[in-house]
Design goal:
This protein is an alpha+beta fold. It folds into two domains: 137 residues, SH3 type barrels, CATH 2.30.30; 285 residues, Alpha-Beta Complex (Fumarylacetoacetate hydrolase, domain 2), CATH 3.90.850. Strands 8, 9, 10, 15, 16, 18, 19 and 24 form an eight-stranded mixed β-sheet that branches. Strands 1, 2, 3, 4, 5, 6 and 7 form a seven-stranded mixed β-sheet that branches. A five-stranded mixed β-sheet has the order 11-28-27-22-23, with no helix packed on it. It starts with 18 loop residues before the first strand and ends with a strand. GO terms for molecular function: fumarylacetoacetase activity; metal ion binding.
Length: 451
């Protein structure tokens, strides 16, 4: 129990405590949602006001970590007044860790310095925050450092080091295989032997709310010459992201069992995709301009420690695994329920629990060749899709490559995104106290190509 009065439907309760980066909302602004928009600045400073989350999206037992700042806050600690600093979401408020602790690690405007301290520091800080918010003896000291989320602006929570995107949903991979390789096995021969992935562009990982400017590039229709212009097949990919805290030395693989020693927390990802650009360019080296124009992430990072009740066994494997991918003693399937909205209408509810490859196996594969980890590395799960049509995590699947347009309540239809469309992805997971914790949201609004 906490001495705070928390909304009954909050997903940002004691069991969650997510981290983020915040600063004061502009004068006269009411702030923006915990997954909000209004980006400003570069990828390490893009910001989004953080107001309340949708009802039911921030259940008690979840405490996301982010960076935030608030106007008129009296006790700024080691950070300059108004500077971006680390905050922890609790109910509809943000706990200012820089002001409360006086620790400069929380005044850097990024979670990286804190994440680099490693699991012992993460656990000690989480225990300390829990004690502050549950023992009434701390109330007088803590209360001045609680700021309404409606009065803060959220920023990109991490300085992204490297970015990797995987392809780990069997349902998604089989759907695409059936579309593009009819009459052949839907999965490529390697798919069940290793987690397929590619390296993305870390500089275009941006905060939720960053406008999605329709990308331009080369594409080619069948039996026609290549053309250059705006993408006609702009798509989403509903994904879950994993944030690395503890680095590893070059030349030293990270085994599956050490996943929780390196990964700090989890966020939501929309890896926007230009399917027509991607289709023309991807042979033989894989995705490039069709993927690198924007990847959006949520402002709150849910600590891995908050997800103990969400751990489940992954699907049964029907191919033997090589030893470095064996996860018999480190099962890291996660029961996360995603929801995708297009212009306010729910179009899909993808289940993360069905992902064939777990984040622990992805991390092991990513480093098995000796590649090092850096604090701030981000890797995404790949599109999360389930076995039913209403659980597919991309428009190319939902419209079956444009053959079966989605029907929206206003009478319009969609095969791919149109200018003016807005996509919001939310997610929840079971918490140890029986409630559901929230991951906030990741949102993007499509703008026309400027040329």
């Amino acid at each position: 129990m906490t001495w705070l009065e928390l909304p009954s439907d909050t997903g940002f309760g004691l069991a969650n405590l997510p981290y983020g980066i915040f600063s004061p909302a502009p004068a006269g602004s009411a702030g923006s949602s915990a997954a909000g928009s209004s980006p400003a600045g570069s990828s390490s400073a893009a910001s989004s006001p953080a107001g309340s989350s949708p009802a039911g999206s921030s259940p008690a037992g979840s405490s996301p970590a982010g960076s935030s700042s608030a106007a008129g806050h009296a006790a700024w600690g080691p950070a300059a007044p108004g500077a971006a600093r680390t905050g922890v979401a609790i109910g509809d408020q943000v706990l200012d860790l820089a002001g409360l602790t006086g620790d400069p690690v929380h005044a850097t405007g990024s979670l990286n310095a804190f994440m680099a301290q490693g699991p012992e520091s993460w656990a000690a800080t989480r225990a300390m925050i829990t004690a502050w918010l549950t023992d009434p003896a701390h109330r007088e000291r803590v209360e001045p450092h609680l700021i309404p989320r409606s009065a803060v602006t959220m920023h990109l929570p991490i300085e992204v080091a490297d970015y990797v995107d995987f392809y780990s949903s069997q349902d998604h991979a089989e759907n695409l295989g059936r579309m593009f390789r009819p009459g052949s096995p839907p999965l490529t021969p390697n798919w069940k032997h290793l987690p397929i992935g590619y390296h993305g562009r870390s500089g275009t990982v941006q905060l939720s709310g960053t406008p999605v400017v329709r990308p331009r590039g080369q594409s080619r229709r069948p039996d026609e010459a290549p053309v250059f212009g705006p993408s006609r097949r702009l798509d989403i990919e509903a994904e879950v992201g994993f944030v690395v805290g503890t680095p590893s030395p070059l030349g030293t693989p990270v085994p599956v069992r050490d996943f929780a020693s390196h990964v700090f927390g989890v966020c939501l990802v929309n890896d926007w995709s230009a399917r027509d650009l991607q289709a023309w360019e991807y042979v033989p080296l894989g995705p490039f301009l069709g993927k690198s124009f924007l990847t959006s992430i949520s402002p709150w990072v849910v600590p891995l420690a908050a997800l103990s009740a969400a751990r489940v066994d992954p699907p049964a494997r029907d191919e033997p695994l090589l030893l470095y991918l064996s996860d018999d003693d480190a099962r890291w399937g996660l029961d996360i329920s995603l929801e995708v909205r297009l212009n306010g209408t729910v179009i899909s509810r993808p289940p993360f629990a069905g992902m064939y490859w777990t984040p622990a196996q992805q991390l092991a594969h990513m480093t098995v060749n000796g590649a090092s980890l850096r604090t701030g590395d981000l890797y995404a799960s790949g599109t999360v899709s389930g076995p039913t049509p209403d659980s597919r995590g991309s428009l190319i699947e939902l419209s079956w490559n444009g053959q079966d347009p989605l029907k929206l309540p206003d009478g319009s239809t969609r095969t791919f995104l149109e200018d003016g469309d807005e996509v919001t992805i939310t997610a929840t997971a079971p918490a140890p106290d029986g409630t559901r914790l929230s991951f906030g949201e990741v949102t993007g609004h499509v703008l026309p190509s400027p040329h």
